[in-house]
Amino acid sequence: MPHADLSALHELLGPDARPCRRAVTGERGTALPAFTDHHVHTHLIDEAPLSRHGIAAVVDLGGDPIALARRPGGGFPAVAYAGAFLTAPGGYPVGRSWAPPETTHEITNISLDAGVPGGVATAIDEQHTCGASVIKVALNFSSGPVFDLETLQAIVASAHARGLPVVAHVEGEGMLRRALDAGVDALAHTPFSEWADPASIARARAMGQRWISTLSIHDGPGRERATINLTTFAAAGGRVLYGTDLGNGDRASGIQPDELAALDSAGVRGPALVAALADPWPLREAPHGVASFVAGEAPGSVDEVPAWLAGATVVPTEELIHDDHR
Predict the structure, then answer these.
(1) pLDDT tens digits, one per residue of 173-227
(2) How far apart are CA 130 and CA 208, in angstroms?
(3) CB 91 within 8 A of CB 144
(4) Residue 190: which of 296, 136, 253, 263 has the closest Cα?
C-alpha cells in the first residue's frame, strides 16, 4: 500500500490499522486491535458467536462471582468481570427475574473491617477473591433504595485499596452527581435519565471518568438524553467505551451495528470509534494473540466506518500477514 494510502487509512481508523491478508485463505482486509464489549451479562447471552462477530473480549458487569471465577480460562472471548452488583438493601436489581440472588450483594454496614457481615470491605473482598477486575455498584434511584454518599465513598475507597476501579449504574435525578462526588471511575451507561450539566461533564472529564455507551438499548427521551450527554462528553475530551448491555433484550451476540451507528451519531467517529472498541479497560492490556479483522476494501470515508466495522471477526494474529506495500 502506498504511503499516502496508509496515511489515509490511519486517518480513518487510527494508527494501529494495518492492511493485511490471511495466510491460509489469502483473504485481504484490515487488521485492528482486538475489540471489547465493555458491558455484557454472560449469564444471559450465548457467548459462542461473539468472536465470530468481532468481539474478542467482554466485561461482565453483574453476575455470580463464584460462577465467573470457575470459568475455564484461555478461550475467546476473554472475560473480565465485576462479580455481583453491590446494592443497598432492597435496591436494584434485587428480585428481578434476570438477576438470580447470587448476582447481587446487599451492603448493610459501612464497615471497612474485613469479615463484617454485610460490610463494605466484606463485599469488596468477596469480589476481589473471586477474580474481579472491577467493582459494580447500583445507583438506581428510580427503582429503589440507593447508597448514601458516605457508603458509596467507602466502597470506592475499599475498591481502590485493592487496585480495583468502580463502575456505577446511575439512574434517577442526582445519581450522576453522587457518583462524581464519590469518585466513581466509570459509568455503566451514558447518563440517560437526567441531563448532564456542563459542570458535571467537566468534572467527569477532569477525573478521567469513562462512560460506557449503551445508547442503543434506549428509545424515546432516554435515547435523546443519552445521545446528547455523550455527544457533549466526547466533545469535551471525555473517555468513551463501546458497550451494549448485551443480555438486555433479544439481540444476537457480537458487534451491534446499532450501537456503532449511535456512537457515530454522537460524534465518536473514525479513530475515536475504533478506540472505544479497542480500549482494554478495566484491564491494562488487550487479549494477546488475536486481532479484529475486517475483510475486503477499507472504508472510503468516515461515514462508512460504522457499517464497515460491523463486519469484523476475531482471528489469530499469527494468521495475518501485513501488507503495507500493496
Answers:
(1) 999 999 999 999 999 999 999 999 999 999 999 999 999 999 999 999 999 999 9
(2) 27
(3) yes
(4) 263
Cis peptide, bond prior to residue 72, ω within 30 of zero: no
List the grid coordinates of 43.
449469564
Backbone angles phi, psi at 223, to 5 degrees: -65, -45
Burial (CB count <10 Å: 0-12, 13-18, 19+), residue 90: exposed
Closest residue by Cα to residue 199 from 169, 225, 236: 236
Residues 258-299 pLDDT 10s:
999 999 999 999 999 999 999 999 999 988 999 999 999 999
Is the full-model pTM beyond 0.90?
Answer: yes
Cβ burial 103-114 (10 Å sphere, 16+ → b, else e): bbbbbebbbbee
